[in-house]
Amino acid sequence: MREFDLVIIGGGPAGMAAAIAAKKQGIDDLVIFERGDELGGILNQCIHNGFGLHTFKEELTGPEYAERYSDQVKELGIPYELGTMVLDMTEDKQISIISRSRGAETVKAKAVVLAMGCRERPRGALGIAGFRPQGVYTAGTAQKLVNCEGVIPGKEVVILGSGDIGLIMARRMTLEGAKVRAVVELMPYSSGLKRNIVQCLDDYGIPLMLSHTVIDIKGKRRLEGVWVAAVDEKNTPIKGTEEYFPCDTLLLSCGLIPENELSKSAGIELSPLTSGPTVDESLETNIEGVFACGNVLHVHDLVDFVSEEAVRAGENAAEYIKGKPSSTGVPVAVKPADGVRYTVPSRLYAESAADSVHIRFRVTGVFKNSAIVVSCGERELFRKRGRIFVPSEMQDIIIKKDKLSELDGDIEVRIEEAAK
Fold first, then answer.
1. pLDDT of amino acid 328
2. Claim: this prediction has a pTM higher than 0.85
3. With the C-alpha atoms ordered 158, 160, 164, 166, is the resulting torsion angle positive or negative?
4. What is 1-120+256-326's CATH topology?
5. Which of 56, 60, 305, 345 has the most CB atoms around its CB within 10 Å?
């Protein structure tokens, strides 16, 4: 059995950033396991720009951003094994893997960083009526077909969901000569970044139909069209609002799900709110020495934030390997309250926290002229006003350690609307 100080599962931006951070902290006995044929993960098919503005202070494409990190991995001599699928992990950090070069084997790790990313929500999870004809794809699958395989899925397109991948594919399909008839969004607001709405829809005259959904898919062998209807406040289709769109392609951009089947098998506690592991302020899960970061933990809006979070996970894993004990003291729960969907971390140890603690979350709706408030009982720990908070943008607040002394209850994060 091979043994490592640190195993990183996933060779995307999170896994590479964690590995680089751990290496710089003096951890030499480490390895990245990546199931794909090259490092970079999903970024390799994201040929649009907009990456790296925070991390590198310049605008890069997805492959360029990934290359910055893969170059560092190679320069630092960090071992990585491609075409290697992790099948299982136990609570004592024994990891079962299989690869073309080595076959099936089990390796042992002192610490593990989970960086498996996320997957798209498929049609089967949406409950749309109709047959299963050719022409229905997730937006990410269509992106890979167009950008990596040079294949255009179709010429008449409807997109369900206004996530960032769907918005970007609306532009991409248009540039390839397809006609995007509409982007249909169930919620009364877009789930994508504002800049993508402007650059991918508005600039190309593509309509965004808010508070609408696809209610039926027509066609048996090949997609012929879809029925779209408006929905009420309970997301129930409204009779009489049905509209038929002839099309040969339906792209689904209906959310991302953290990839945590492996986490479940290891006994890692998952949050019902994020579908990712519950972690403390050091990004450590309920299993000592197992850390999580990136989209496997919670879905991020910018890859720059994925990398920043992964650096903290890698550094904390390195400290654990060197003998620093896991977080000590009595944990304090961090809970979402009014207007907040979830929080990461979900608990923190004030005594062993670093100089400052990051709390990341998303809001449940559109809030204008409001404030983010963090409190413990009657004591206010943090307040930040903002012109607008939207669900598509992840919030990242930093609380200094001195604010966390002598806490006497749970910490709540809420949105406080301005008085009308």
1. 72
2. yes
3. negative
4. FAD/NAD(P)-binding domain (3.50.50)
5. 345
